[in-house]
Structures are given as C-alpha cells and as structure tokens.
Amino acid sequence: MQSQSDDLTPTEQNDFVAAGSQLPEFWQRPDIEWGRKKALLRRLIDKVILQRVVRDRITIRIVWRGGEVTEREVEPRVHALSALSRGAEMEVRLLELASYAAIWVTRLIKRRSAASVQ
Questions:
Q1: Which of 51, 74, 77, 78 shows the smallest number of beta carbons within 10 Å?
Q2: Residue 34: left if φ>0, alpha if ψ -120 to 50, beta else—which one?
Q3: 28-80 per-position pLDDT tens digit
Q4: How far apart are CA 38 and CA 44, in angstroms?
C-alpha cells in the first residue's frame, strides 16, 4: 500500500522515464562498480522466480517493485546430448549427417587417388 508521500510528481516521473532510457549505457560503463549495479537491481526488483520447465529449459520470472512482471525462457548449457529434451532426435540426425560426410570423404579420396595414379 502506498502512502501519499510515495507518489511521484509529474517531474519525478519524467526524470525516471529519462533515466530508464539511459540504463543500458549505465550498465556498460566500466567506471561503475558491479556492487553499485547490484544495489540498483535490489531496489528495482521485488523477486526472481526460476522454474525448470524441462532439463534443458528454465523460465525466469522477474517481479519488479512496481508490480510489472518480465518473463523469459533460457536454455542453460548442458554437457551431454542425453540432457537435451530433443537429444535422441538430434543424435539420429547427427549420425545421419555423419554417414553422408563419410560417403563424401570416401568418394573424394577415391577421386584423388585415381587422379594421382594417372
């Protein structure tokens, strides 16, 4: 619940909107310490919710202090084909492509061998 003193004046609202458009530049500045950037995030974010949808997909939900919600889905690194939700399908396709490559290399070697004999 907000009190009257928490309400922003129109000038303050405009200042915040202007500052928001400068955040990407602010974030890239090397002269601003990471600790200060983290402090800013702590002021802006109410909570972060991570949910593993499947082994290779995570939903990130950020609840901002003003009540807005940002949701993204990310695919973390996995260290085995079997850890991917479509791993078996990818393995079949990779083996298929590898067999095509083997056939192509074999033909190329035969052509070069034949050309060198002549």
A1: 77
A2: alpha
A3: 989 989 998 888 888 889 999 999 888 778 999 999 988 889 999 988 777 67
A4: 10
Distance of alpha carbon 38 from alpha carbon 8, whole angstroms: 24
For residue 83, what is the DSSP state? G
How many Å apart are CA 71 and CA 75, to the nearest integer? Answer: 14
List all residues 6 or more positions away from 57 whose beta carbon is below 8 Å from its beta carbon: 73, 74, 75, 85
What pLDDT is stored for residue 1 in this prediction? 45
- Write out the two tokens for 64: 């901002």
What one-character DSSP code corresponds to residue 106?
H
Cβ atoms of 62 and 45 within 8 Å: the answer is: yes
Question: Are the C-beta atoms of residues 62 and 70 closer than 8 Å to each other?
Answer: yes
